[in-house]
Amino acid sequence: QVQLVESGGGLVQAGGSLRLSCAASGRTFSSYVMGWFRQAPGKEREFVAAISWSGGSTYYADSVKGRFTISRDNAKNTVYLQMNSLKPEDTAVYYCAASVLPPNYSGSYYYTSVYDYWGQGTQVTVSS
Coil, strand, or helix at residue 17? Predict the structure, then answer.
């Protein structure tokens, strides 16, 4: 079992930056694949980024590629999402998620069903 707590959301102007953090409690944080998702009002929750157990592999939605960077610090049990060049369409509640996957997993990281634990979310609002 792992508890996830997001922080770092807020209001920012278009073109600005924010860094989200997700602190995990519990043991063996390094055994989880970590992901970020977002959900805008009236829309389904969508994949933003994911990072492998050691941080050696990262995955991004096309809409954020080149602007967002996911990273993790296993010593601090924390995963980050650095968001640059923010756009109004990035406005959403951002969720951190953790997945228990086998080391030989070769499937997609893009689906909410892959993830076992979720945080409560943090609001990001980008004004034009």
Answer: coil
